[in-house]
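Form 7-S
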Amino acid sequence: MRSFRLLLCCGLLLGLTAFAAFAAASDDCLACHSDSATVGKAFAINPAIFDTTVHAQLGCPSCHTSVGAGHPDDGLPPSKASCQECHAEVAKEYAASSHHQNAACSDCHNPHQVRGPTEVSGADMNRTCSGCHELAAMATTHTTWLPQADLHIGMLPCISCHTASKENVITLYIIKRPAAARFGRFELAGYNELKALASHGKIEGLIDGNEDNYISLAELRLFNSDQERTGLRLQGMMTPETVTHNFQILANRRDCSFCHASGPAARQTSYLSLATSDGSYRRLPVERGAVLDALYGTPDFYMVGSTRSTALNYIGAVIIAGGLVVPIGHGTLRFLTRRNRANKED
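Output:
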């Protein structure tokens, strides 16, 4: 037992030592590569972004093993690790997709700015796709089968339909848009803009009034009804929690019920996603039922089916039934009393 503990301690010590060494080496690299004037724009890295990525924890030498003490004066080009070395399963999945012949990993993912799916906005996801697929052209292409194609593309990341990504949730973003413009294009409010509006407080405080890192329906209603913030609104997107790289055209995505499932239980998990200083997004959970509160909870997001309320269904059925009672009752009564009317006329 003592020897096992000794080995464990040695392993941890070596791991920490290696991590510290890689971190120090990364600092040395960024001393030059954080300045585009020194290394050129193509090789410049933003430390504020890189330091928050998972690749930063690995350290620069993990991917650029050939860089030695003589760099850059030795004239040797730095080696680059293959993504497949760490992401073998993803590479295998992507190789089987219809997309792999058209783009390499680095065409969509900057290794120095990698983010998880919950740390980027849906608009950022689509911006990546638009590098090759111009969104206006895609809207025109989708119009052949998809009603209001431009609206759908604005409310959905491309990967929600063109991969087997799953566990879709409703993500709310703070956007800038004139109060009178209920529909149309919008722009996400950036960190600096939100910080200025928050004054000396936290950005979360713009909506999360009690700062408990949880957005209640009451807080949503207060934000949406605040007349002093008419230029800020909440925009919802259906985003996947789990992403895949098996890009393809999926037939079931053309079935409206894939998204517009009947009943309020569908896709009721929602989050508020806020921009941070490093360019990523931080999510706060939102009370269930926000999507159903189309008037105050999510006034700029309504998805037929998922926002359907059972209570309103019953109320609507009663109204329709009540409207039918009068003409049907009147017609039935006239039919039953037709002979009496005929005798009176004679």
